Amino acid sequence: MSNGKLSIALCQFHPSKGDMLANFAKHKTLIEQAAEQGANLVVFPELSLTGYEPQLLKLNAIVERGEIENAFAELAKECGVTIIAGVPLQSGANRLCCLIRLEDMAA
Q1: Which value, to the nearest 10 degrees, does the dihedral of the CA atoms of residues 82, 84, 89, 92 take?
Q2: What is the spatial distance between Cα 85 and Cα 81, in angstroms, rounded to a whole number?
Q3: Regarding the domain delimited by 9-103, which CATH topology (the fold level of the hierarchy) does it fall under?
Q4: Is residue 87 a contact partner of residue 102, using CB atoms and an 8 Å limit?
Q5: Which tens digits make up the pLDDT trace of 66-106?
Q6: Contact 60, 88 (CB under 8 A)
Q7: Structure pTM?
């Protein structure tokens, strides 16, 4: 946001139920397109990584946040954007529908 302006891309797609790898690939494509068009904040809806399937939340909840956060963080750095994405996280016995924010810290 070097010019002082915030350009926001709101992204929505039809996710594949429970297929986090395929859905991450869709995130990646949309994030790259948004960055090419000048966006510096790219926002996805809740459960965009797994598909909006509350009954699958138990199976798809991410226990180890590092791997997915690292993948999004690297993408944020490569594209020079901040990413907000919906992911299911597990905290103890609880499964949570969360948004994570990852940004290019070099900006």
Answers
A1: 70
A2: 13
A3: Nitrilase/N-carbamoyl-D-aminoacid amidohydrolase (3.60.110)
A4: no
A5: 677 888 999 999 999 999 998 877 777 877 777 778 776 54
A6: yes
A7: 0.83
